[in-house]
Amino acid sequence: MNRDNSAIEAQQMKIRRTITIVSIVVQLFGVVYHTAAQDIPALKDVFKNDFLIGGALNRWVVTGRDTKAAAITKKHFNTATAENDMKWQSINRSPGRYNWEAADNFVDFCEKNRISIIGHCLVWHSQVPRWVFRDNAGDALTRDALLARMKDHIMTVVGRYKGRIKGWDVVNEALNENGTLRNSQWLRIIGEGSEEKQYDFIENAFRWAHKADPNAELYYNDYGLETSKAKCDGAVEIVEHLKSKGIRIDGVGIQLHDSLDRPVADGLEYAITSLASTGVKVMITELDVRTRTRGYRGADVGRTNRRNTRDTNADDAETQEKLADKYTEIFSVLLEHKEDIDRVTFWGVYDGASWIGGSPLLFDRDYRPKDAFFGVVETAEKYR
Asked: What are phi and psi of 254, to 5 degrees?
């Protein structure tokens, strides 16, 4: 028994030594990574003479629960967008009841860290509670009733943050791929099927946003403007229509949810030059690059299966090389047209917080800068 106990104790001691060695290695690796992360250039400094650089922040970042993502944000970004916490569904889930906690946390975090704030978004067909379009009997609202409900929401939300928000995505994703207006409930009810009224919900949204905060910039935001010339032309028509009515619009956001194998340069140049020709600012508002090769690949959040976003090939050297090449391509175009670009915002802070999974951003799931990060920095240096 004594001999057996001695053998067991020796084995346990060996295991404890192994654990101790592994722990030291892990700690040393953490120190090395931490030092390396501190040494890399801040993106907001790299592009300080070109355009603002930002990210979409979730509530774990702004409340301090995701400390490493918060550290990346503070170091690299000078502008930020609330990923979900300022959308109608998040703020005003039931009639007459507003929950400001998450949105307030986002605004407070940005102000504390001197980050310019983008409000996202006021009018969208998605992530809107069903009650918004229904009366007490469950029937569809009339045009006037829905306009009144929209006005109340915009005046309340924009008014609460008056003077604190740099700009608002007033209307989001109102276009089809062919450049016509999406057949949303906003269009059907407020437009009443009349061509003369098709822009009415957009007009009124911009009017009320301006009334609620006359100093805030106002934007139209959409995806696919770089892949569909017809859709980009539709966005140009929206800008020109609002301007013809004397309604303020300051910019158009190109979401730019890209993929590894899709050509982007020519289409992106067309979108930038076409939109800039109307006299508004152009922004890249939701930048990421899909590494997944299966499943839905569009930008409609309603069609993304968040339970199936892992990509087993995401960390492969070949995938990372392609990702770096794609980001280099994108930023080469942006820097060629930097006079027209006001802001570039990544849709997320690091891969682990991405809405599409895989490996779409500049920082990996362990918060480390990837080849794509250094590719972006090197591209900026070439344009100095």
From this structure: -95, 115
Query: In this structure, what CATH number is given to the domain that contains residue 222?
Result: 3.20.20.80
Amino acid code (one letter) for 253 = G
Domain count, the chain: 2
Q: Which of 316, 304, 309 is nearest to 358 (CA)?
A: 309
Angle between helices 371-382 and 317-336 (to 10 degrees): 30
**203 shares a domain with 295:** yes
Q: Dig out the tokens for 325 from the structure.
A: 């090449």
Please check whether residues 30 and 147 belong to one and the same domain: no
Examine the residue annotation and report whether 286 is marked as an active-site residue of this protein. Answer: yes
- To the query of whether residue 378 is one of the catalytic residues in this protein, the response is no
Label residue 18 by pLDDT band (50, 70, 90).
very low
User: Which residue range is the domain that position 6 belongs to?
Assistant: 1-39
Residues 35 and 49 both lie in one domain = no
Look at 11 and 246; give whichever has higher pLDDT: 246
Tokens of 21: 């060695």
pLDDT above 70 covers a percentage of the chain that reads 85
Q: Is 295 exposed, middle or buried (0-12, 13-18, 19+ CB in 10 A)?
A: middle
pTM above 0.90, yes or no: no
Residue 208's contacts (CB-CB under 8 Å, 6 or more residues apart) are 150, 151, 154, 155, 158
Q: Which of 83, 173, 226, 329 is catalytic?
A: 173
Q: Are 125 and 184 in contact (CB under 8 A)?
A: yes
Catalytic residue among 83, 226, 286, 329: 286
Contact 209, 171 (CB under 8 A): no
Helix (H, G, I), strand (E, B) or coil at 258: strand
Average pLDDT of the segment spanning 238-265: 96
CB 189 within 8 A of CB 142: yes
CA distances from 175 to 106, 135, 178, 207 (A): 29, 26, 8, 20
